[in-house]
Amino acid sequence: xxxxxxxxxxxxxxxxxxxxxxxxxxxxxxxxxxxxxxxxxxxxxxxxxxxxxxxxxxxxxxxxxxxxxxxxxxxxxxxxxxxxxxxxxxxxxxxxxxxxxxxxxxxxxxxxxxxxxxxxxxxxxxxxxxxxxxxxxxxxxxxxxxxxxxxxxxxxxxxxxxxxxxxxxxxxxxxxxxxxxxxxxxxxxxxxxxxxxxxxxxxxxxxxxxxxxxxxxxxxxxxxxxxxxxxxxxxxxxxxxxxxxxxxxxxxxxxxxxxxxxxxxxxxxxxxxxxxxxxxxxxxxxxxxxxxxxxxxxxxxxxxxx
Length: 306
Description:
Number of helices: 8
Strand order of the largest sheet: 9-8-10-11-7-12-13-14
Distance between the termini: 63 Å
Shape: globular
Radius of gyration: 26 Å
Mean pLDDT: 84
Strand content: 15-25%
Order of helices and strands: HHHEEEEHEEEHEEHEHEEEEH
Structural class: alpha/beta
Helix content: 25-40%
């Protein structure tokens, strides 16, 4: 048929072509937008390609050593830190309330939080080497321009992860990786039961409990799940001891956990104790193969408990 604006058949053909084109766009455009949106919000797609800034560990180490030096210089016994927030101001949620901190710190009226400007803490003369006090401290996420560090042993109990298996594995590997490289954790033993990460020394449940009982060195115990029955209760009891030097992270939720952190695919994790933090911003020590699967990194027994 010869095209002509004067024939009704041409008008019908044009109308049908426009309808088909609009129908195709109605399907294709939302699909492309949805795929791009999923890629940008699904941190598991891209987070492993983010390299950890080598200066980040130095900055945290400098703050930890400054905390110890400020107390040592004033003859003040540091009460321990559950959480340390690093930004323009450094804030410490101390383990035991203390209303008379050394300079440059100031305390809240209840003595539960110390704070100091970062510049003032950087000016504190350092003493000695890596602070043993913080052997189980680790950055667990960021919020805006702040980094949040938790001293896991000060939790005095099991820290458990819940959520999709791949998201939990992503946070867990970032935490354990830092223990293998952080200068303040050079003397920290890392043991694993069930090999949830594969970076620590593999042990049995009974060997892990024996190490925590001996408390000979600072340590981090990583378990695919909290041991069942009496073993789990004994582990929880040991971690609650005042002055204990061991911490424990479980790759699956459990009623015995002191803290439970919900880890999400969007690169965040949420808990009552820490609020919402970005785990994806922690980065990896060495970016992994982007073609590698993101699922299946947590053992099957732990994935079933998500």
